[in-house]
Design goal:
Glutamine Phosphoribosylpyrophosphate, subunit 1, domain 1, Ntn_hydrolases_N, hydrolase, 6-stranded antiparallel β-sheet, about 30% strand, 7 helices, glutamine amidotransferase, about 250 residues, 13 strands, alpha+beta, EC 3.5.1.118
Length: about 250
């Protein structure tokens, strides 16, 4: 369920990253090639991007399928950015949250997306919710599992954890509380990309010193795409990609 992508590199048009590639995120909304759960991602979409000189990203999110929004086509034609996070959604279950449930979620300079599902949601997450400050729960944009996962990550970031530690600890905590969950997370601050592969596909395309793309699946057949092993934390910039194994919870 769901597909997402993050990019950091030279200025690039949204249309070049999301629409024009033969198997880009736009096409993945109805014809993903490597999606293991679900077949059509038509329950909302979102794009977040950074403008020069402004560390706080802009977002465009909608409730319907990306192919049915003519405003997105017009936006993608003119917007260019050196850092982007975008996602298309296949809802775990029906809900009334609308575009508030569509990634990317945001706070300050951060953009976040969750590709997967928390097993047994919401009962399985109740013990973790008890450990969150009341303010974090009151600020939830939506009642879906992805918004809750973002609250867990953001709580750690706010308390001073670096991005990789916040993502890794959130995944292992959720996996212990809700075994069988799929927890592919994607986070960027416009300079770095942090991601986890846990139960679903994750790939990256790296041009050293120039750009990095991290995505649920390749948007073309470039032979330099590399698959991230399951149970792995990815930390990337334009210049480097570091993969670190994640431990199964005891």
């Amino acid at each position: 369920m769901c597909r997402h992508i993050a990019y950091t590199g030279p200025m690039l048009g949204l249309v070049e990253l999301l629409v024009r590639p033969p198997h880009g995120l736009y096409r993945q909304s109805w014809a993903p090639r490597r999606q293991r759960h679900g077949t059509v991602n038509a329950d909302g979409f979102g794009v977040g991007w950074y403008a020069d000189g402004d560390p706080v990203p802009a977002r465009y999110r909608r409730t319907g399928p990306i192919w049915a929004d003519p405003n997105f086509a017009d936006l993608a034609r003119v917007v260019r950015s050196g850092a982007v996070l975008a996602a298309i959604r296949d809802a775990t279950e029906a809900g009334a949250d609308g575009e508030a449930a569509a990634a990317p979620f945001a706070d300050g300079r951060w953009l976040f997306s969750h590709n997967g599902a928390v097993k047994g949601w919401p009962l399985s997450a109740a013990p973790l919710a008890d450990a969150l400050p009341a303010q974090a729960l009151l600020r939830l944009e939506a009642r879906c599992d992805a918004a809750f996962v973002w609250a867990l990550v953001l709580s750690r970031l706010t308390n001073g954890d670096e991005a990789g530690q916040a993502m890794a600890d959130t995944v292992t905590e959720l996996a212990a509380a809700a075994p069988g969950s799929r927890l592919n997370l994607l986070l960027t601050d416009g300079e770095t990309i942090t991601a986890t592969a846990w139960g679903d596909t994750l790939w990256y395309l790296h041009s050293p010193g120039r750009s990095t793309v991290v995505a649920s699946e390749p948007y073309d057949d470039d032979p330099y795409w590399r698959e991230v092993p399951d149970r792995t934390l990815l930390a990337a910039t334009r210049t480097d990609v570091l993969l670190t194994p994640l431990k199964e919870p005891q």
